[in-house]
Amino acid sequence: MTTEEALFIYTLRLGDTNLILGQRLSEWTGHGPFLEEDLALTNIALDIIGTAKALLEYAAQTEGKGRTEDDLAYFRNDRQYLNLQITEQPNGDYAKTIVRQAMMDCFDLYFYQELAKSKDQTLAGIAQKSIKEVTYHLRHTSSWVERFGDGTEESHDRAQAAVNALWAYTGELFEMDEVDELLIKEGIGVDLNVVKAKWDAYMADLLQRATLTIPENVFMHTGSRKGIHTEHLAYILAEMQALPRMYPTAKW
Question: pLDDT tens across 114-141, in order?
């Protein structure tokens, strides 16, 4: 595998993860529990989709086969997507959405802090911009995790149920393969062991403050690096891709 091939896969993974997470969050637009929070999640979704656009655009350039970010987003099937499985999980109730987002915001903050040191100037630039956005995202979602966990009996139970349901997908955040190893050696990629140590510490402290318990002896789901996903991704793509596939040559 060449460095260029590895860089394409690496950037595609990041772009797919952001795109699917942003698509999931956008489902709350107009359905938030109250106006301010509806707008907050919508804005977070826009930030994440903006990052996805930048990453997929760079992936397309790196691939060098004439495809665009739109081609990558709208004309691949679920087995060709490389997003983390946690991002495709249904929103559920508001507690589940917030817990999932806090997990991802925490990962993204520490990941982008490391990626900002990359020798690849494009990835480093995307990371530097994202750090500013994700810092706000994490502060927002963390405050809600605390409010849910240390709130009423019902809010605590819903938040704990969310942690229990999503924890099995967190192991995949820190998996590495030959793509990661090659790019780490080249000074481009991120050593996820460094990110994991910081993520573990932050999440343990957050959940303790929220009086929530980390599940034990959990079987971790895996497979997204090989295009293996839960049933939910195909439904997301069917909705997201319907219009471009119906009118592939349309100009807006």
Answer: 999 999 999 999 999 999 999 999 999 9
Q: Which residues contact 198 (CB under 8 A, 6 or more apart)?
A: 110
96 is a domain residue:
yes
Look-up of token digits 């990371």: 127
Answer whether residue 32 shows pLDDT above 90.
Answer: no
Domain housing 241:
3-246
Q: How far is CA 199 from CA 74, 87, 138, 195, 205, in A?
A: 32, 17, 12, 6, 10
Distance separating alpha carbons of residues 232 and 3, to the nearest angstrom: 32
The answer to whether position 42 is within a domain reads: yes
Domain at 216, CATH number: 1.20.1260.10
At 99, list the tokens: 């817990």
Is residue 69 included in any domain, yes or no?
yes
Helix or strand holding residue 178 (H, E): helix 178-185
pLDDT at 233 over 90: yes
- Checking if the pLDDT of 55 tops 80, the result is yes
Burial of 126 (0-12, 13-18, 19+ CB in 10 A): buried
- Split into its structural domains, the chain has a count of 1
Give the integer Cα–Cα distance in Å for 128 and 113: 7
Asked if the structure places residue 252 within a domain, the reply is no
